[in-house]
Design a protein that fits this description.
The chain is mainly β and 220 residues long. It is built from no helices and twelve strands.
């Protein structure tokens, strides 16, 4: 779920064809959860020479869309007298609230399919060039299958988000419905789909669809 703000410039050489260039700012909100399966070998012991209960630091990466987040955990032994088996697997279940901000440049072409009075319908296609993305993660809940290795008392997982400034490409398919309310102003209704193409290690193929509502002002 999300919303998008955009500014577009349009060139119409005739009443059949239109060419568009713009800039989009979109914000996506995602609620999800993941389960991490870890062993002692995945962590680093912070006090190997101490007689106190051993503390271990863990770090792993969660990837979602064009952004990745690094999760840092701190756990300690519950029963120091019972050595931990390096092959024992313990699971971390975590819920996260992610807000992702994306910037893109859409380049599209429109072809008129039908018109009736002041109403016109166009087929629309093109590409979207994504050039920046960053996200913010908030941990909403977490728990672990605790045997002899548990979170320190009062500890909360720490999440660091990574930005992606690599260029990505999306294919835009959709339509455009225009209603001319005056000689200069038209109202626009655009249902469309954006199919992302994987371009970098943190990108995942995905498709988004939505509806754009706006107004268009004719300069000449």
């Amino acid at each position: 779920m999300g919303f998008q703000n955009s500014l577009n410039f349009q060139l119409a050489p005739n009443d059949k064809w239109k060419f568009n260039l713009g800039i989009n700012r979109s914000q996506l909100i995602h609620h999800g959860s993941h389960t991490a399966s870890l062993t002692i070998m995945d962590g680093v012991c912070l006090n190997p020479n101490s007689n106190e209960p051993k503390e271990y630091a863990f770090s792993y990466v969660v990837t979602n869309g064009r952004t990745s987040s690094t999760v840092n955990l701190l756990l300690s032994e519950e029963n120091p007298g019972s050595p931990l088996d390096s092959n024992d697997v313990f699971k971390i279940v975590m819920g996260m609230h992610k807000k992702t901000l994306n910037w893109a440049i859409p380049i599209t072409i429109e072809r008129k399919l039908y018109s009736l009075g002041e109403l016109s319908i166009f087929a629309k296609g093109g590409i979207a060039l994504g050039f920046a993305s960053n996200s913010r993660d908030i941990v909403t809940h977490f728990s672990e299958s605790c045997a002899n290795l548990c979170f320190n008392h009062g500890f909360s997982p720490i999440v660091y988000s990574q930005k992606s400034n690599q260029l990505t490409t999306g294919i835009i398919l959709g339509s455009s419905v225009e209603w001319k309310v005056s000689r200069k102003i038209s109202l626009v209704f655009n249902p469309e789909m954006n199919i992302n193409i994987k371009m970098s290690p943190v990108d995942h193929n995905s498709a988004k669809w939505g509806v754009n509502l706006g107004a268009m002002y004719k300069i000449q």
